[in-house]
Write a structure and sequence with these properties.
Helix content: 25-40%
Radius of gyration: 22 Å
Number of helices: 10
Bound molecules: adenosine-5'-triphosphate, magnesium ion
Strand content: 15-25%
Structural class: alpha/beta
Order of helices and strands: HEEEHEEEEEHHHEHHHEEHEHEEE
CATH superfamily of one domain: RecF/RecN/SMC, N-terminal domain
Largest sheet: 6 strands, antiparallel
CATH topology of one domain: Glutathione S-transferase Yfyf (Class Pi), Chain A, domain 2
Distance between the termini: 37 Å
Shape: globular
CATH class of one domain: Mainly Alpha
Number of strands: 15
Length: 406
């Protein structure tokens, strides 16, 4: 805790404590950009400060190259930890500590946000698994407070299997897309999951206290319906944004399916509430036997179709699935820029290397014009030749980062 306080305080901007509802220098600051990034005891980094290399004001693209195992993904993951959730590897907090390190991990950044410069910091509480969040030096109540300032969407090599994996990974992907539109979504989701875990624990212990169970179920209903409604809203707008192919990237049909989402499409909200509450009540015995809960938005799924081929995403080729994912992420970023004025940070791990020339050029063109920063990684520098003069290049080796000539 003290460690994070120190690392956030030392870089505090001059406007600390001032009204952050307007850009501090009066400029039209629309995009998100990390100006300084610090990692402490984070995986293979004992101490990294990327500001020493000077992240420039005018460049929106950061390219990190390096050999396998150099630490490229770790940097992107560290940035992802500055948003709510478990980051781009979905890891336990303790696993991020550097092996044999002297203390818990911490990450901080100076961010140009829509409200002007802001200092964000996060790290593991030395006492346990909890993650501490600090915003402009003050401890925030929870991780969801970060969504007020920062949003990030990522693509990693593991996500090449997103359409083949379990529905949990697709739900996490969809929820992350919502964070940039609805800062309260992360908080509602974690409140829903907390109530569900507490109910499951009581049921497992054989507790039959109806008032206690009902209170937890009504929290699940209230939060769960809000979560499902946000997912429906997001997919409806994404579906329109993805309907046409974007250059070499395919058009996609995007929907969400789940008992609560489906009911919201055809019933008034009060009826959906009653139905969900009744299903939870009726399912208590079954949930006591099986754990979790048999009903609710924690079981929903994101369904994607390749429009031109009229093919469900999981039946598309590996390259087609990747192109679909990129199409959704780019459409989402443009949508967020148009509706919220601020697109998310994009963290694209090993994405460029696996694209053909046409798709790679189209991707670079889009991220150049997006307005928020994009972080790209790759083992081969020549993949990024087109970005020479347009991006900042860093090379990683043995946990050290060196700035390269642009
Ligand atoms: N908790 C940890 N403590 C110390 N080192 C770690 C920890 N977790 C992972 N590492 C190491 O960090 C190194 C860099 O990992 P990272 O995934 O960032 O590499 P990369 O540059 O993305 O490689 P690739 O090109 O293979 O994807 C690896 O050697 C890994 O073993
Ligand atoms: Mg990697």
């Amino acid at each position: 805790m003290e460690f994070i306080a120190r690392m956030v305080d030392q870089d505090m901007p001059a406007n600390q404590g001032e009204d952050l509802t307007a850009s501090s220098d009066g400029s039209d600051m629309t995009g998100l950009a990390i100006r300084k990034l610090s990692l402490f005891s984070y995986r293979n980094y004992t101490h990294l400060r990327m500001e020493a290399e000077g992240l420039k004001q005018d460049s929106n693209i950061v390219v990190i190259t390096g050999h396998n195992g150099a630490g490229k993904t770790n940097i992107l993951e560290a940035i992802s930890m500055l948003t709510p959730g478990r980051g781009l590897r979905s890891c336990k907090t303790r696993d991020l500590d550097q092996v044999n390190a002297f203390g818990p991990w911490a990450v901080s950044c100076s961010l140009d946000s829509q409200y002007g410069p802001v200092e964000l910091g996060t790290g593991r509480d030395p006492e346990g698994e909890r993650r501490i969040v600090r915003i402009n030096g003050a401890t925030a109540k929870g991780q969801s407070a970060l969504s007020e300032y920062i949003s990030a969407v990522w693509l990693t090599p593991q996500m090449d299997r997103l359409f083949l994996d379990s529905s949990g990974a697709r739900r996490r992907f969809l929820d992350r897309l919502i964070y940039g539109f609805d800062a309260a979504h992360a908080g509602r989701l974690s409140a829903y999951e907390k109530a569900m875990r507490e109910r499951a624990k009581l049921l497992k212990q054989g507790v039959k206290d109806d008032i206690w169970l009902k209170a937890l179920e009504s929290q699940m209903v209230e939060r769960g319906i809000a979560v499902a409604a946000a997912r429906r809203d997001m997919t409806e707008r994404l579906d329109i944004a993805c309907a046409r192919s974007d250059g070499p990237f395919p058009g996609a049909k995007v929907t969400v399916s789940g008992s609560v989402e489906d009911d919201l499409a055809r019933l008034p909200a009060v009826e959906v509430e009653d139905k969900f509450a009744a299903a939870l009540r009726a399912g208590r015995q079954q949930d006591a036997d099986n754990g979790g809960a048999g009903h609710g938005p924690h079981r929903s799924d994101l369904d994607v179709m390749h429009l031109e081929k009229n093919m469900p995403a999981h039946l598309c080729s590996t390259g087609e699935q990747k192109a679909l994912l990129i199409a959704i992420v780019l459409a989402h970023a443009k949508l967020q820029a148009a509706e919220r004025g601020v697109p998310p940070l994009l963290l694209l791990d090993e994405v460029a290397a696996h694209l053909d020339q046409k798709k790679r050029s189209a991707l670079f063109e889009t991220i150049e014009s997006l307005g928020s920063q994009t972080w790209l990684t790759g083992t081969e520098p020549n993949v990024f030749d087109e970005l020479k003069g347009k991006a900042q290049f860093f090379h990683v080796e043995n946990g050290k980062v060196k700035k390269q000539a642009a």
